[in-house]
Amino acid sequence: MAAEEAAPMGLDAVDRQLLRLVQKDARLSAERLAEAVELSASAVQRRLQALRRGGVIVGEVAVVNPRRVGRPLTMLVEIQIERERPELLGALRRWLSNEEAVQQAWYTTGEADFMLVVTAASVEGFDAFMERLLADNRNVRKFKTGVALQVTKRSLFVPVDPD
């Protein structure tokens, strides 16, 4: 079973509070987290390790401002495919997963089969990306692109309600 399909892990109030805190700032020390949840630093470290092993925490990353690294464009791309044969879907999923410009890729219901968030340095760079996508994935029937004019919110925060 894939991590995203796994059953929810039994979380107590402290686990939930830790998750809220580390989602906002993964750089918080065990000592600072311990103060916030009223446990020892070693107990906090054990709990965080258990959350990682249990697949609740799946990664800890730096959030980079795309404009500051020369990728000011964000495109929202809807993709329709010809056929939903498993081998064709698998090939497209692997291609999207390996493409660094794709920040997020969602297999969806509705008119679009996939929704993508793509970052680009320029319109020409995005065009080259789309040419590669179409050349490498003959199963793509059509696509529609929207340009993000302004970022109102960018987050992967998952609300973790108290017990």
TrEMBL record:
HTH asnC-type domain segment(s): 11-72
Matching CDD domains: HTH_ARSR
SUPFAM superfamilies: Dimeric alpha+beta barrel, Winged helix' DNA-binding domain
Record's protein name: Lrp/AsnC family leucine-responsive transcriptional regulator
Origin species: Muricoccus pecuniae
Keyword field: DNA-binding, Transcription, Transcription regulation
Keyword field contains Transcription regulation: yes
Domain of life: Bacteria
GO molecular function terms noted in the UniProt entry: sequence-specific DNA binding
Pfam families from the UniProt entry: AsnC_trans_reg (PF01037), HTH_AsnC-type (PF13404)
Isomerase is among the record's keywords: no
GO biological process: regulation of DNA-templated transcription; response to amino acid
InterPro entries per record: ArsR-like_HTH, AsnC-type_HTH_dom, Dimeric_a/b-barrel, Tscrpt_reg_AsnC-like, Tscrpt_reg_AsnC/Lrp_C, WH-like_DNA-bd_sf, WH_DNA-bd_sf
An annotated GO cellular component: cytosol
